[in-house]
Amino acid sequence: MFAMTTVPTVRRLLTASALALGVATASLAPVLTAPAQAAVPKVRGLAVVDMQKVLNDTKQGVSARKKLEDSSKAKQEKLDGKRKKLEADQAKLKNLSGDKLAQAEETLQKEYMEMQQIYMTMQQELAAQEGRVLEDIYKNCQSVIDKIAAEMEIDLVLIRDETTILFAEPGLDITDVLVKRYNVKYPG
User: Fold this and answer.
1) Which of 18, 96, 143, 167 is the most exposed place for a label (fewest CB within 10 A)?
2) Predicted pLDDT at 4
3) Containing H/E element for 139?
4) Residue 156's beta-bridge partner residues?
5) Residues 79, 115: contact at Cβ < 8 Å?
6) What is the rounded distance in angstroms from the CA atom of residue 107 to the CA atom of residue 113?
7) DSSP class of 166
């Protein structure tokens, strides 16, 4: 008797659940079936630029690289002078003993730490110089690329790099055009 009274109750629950599920599904149907429509503009043209080639081939890039190399060489010479002095001072330690040896070792240790600090500072200065140069060249490239893109009806210019673009048709590469115009606008 227990089984007979529960069957109609279960049927009513199932019917009510099915009806509720049908209403819920019907109310979601427009959301689930409507395609997402985003306004994506058509791209008229696409191009790539090899910035490493721009840095190597523009007059400003060559000049900047030479300045960085000269600066690096001057800093390295200063550091080499300091290192040679420390090596000479270390060689003198062999002739010392006792308190004089301890004092000379302490002085040598301080000078060595100063040399390390000078090295770190020089590295930071060189990195900052390089960053400023790259930033200037990139900004200058942007103004030249804007004009090229307008003339050639290009909507998207990508930087060609082996980590970002695996393949591009050679006809998409506008690097040579950019270098020529860059050298005219920014001669050095």
Assistant:
1) 167
2) 46
3) helix 98-152
4) 46
5) yes
6) 10
7) S
Architecture of domain 46-185: 2-Layer Sandwich (3.30)
Q: Name the residue ranges covered by the structural domains of the chain.
A: 46-185
Q: Would you mind telling me the total number of residues written for the chain in this entry?
A: 188
Q: What is the DSSP letter of 34?
A: S
pLDDT exceeds 60 at position 142: yes
pLDDT of residue 19 exceeding 50, the answer is: no
The answer to whether residues 75 and 122 touch, using CB atoms and an 8 Å cutoff, is yes
Let me know if 105 is exposed, middle or buried by CB neighbors in 10 A (0-12, 13-18, 19+): middle
Between the alpha carbon of residue 180 and those of residues 81, 111, 185, the distances in Å are 42, 50, 9
Contact 59, 187 (CB under 8 A): yes
pLDDT band at 149 (very low <50, low <70, confident <90, very high): very high
- C-beta atoms surrounding 115 within 10 Å: 15
Query: CA-to-CA distance for 122 and 72, rounded, in angstroms?
Result: 8
For the whole prediction, is pTM greater than 0.70?
no
Query: What are the DSSP E strand ranges found in 2-56?
Result: 46-49
The average confidence (pLDDT) of the chain is 84
Output the six-digit token pair for 77. 């010479």
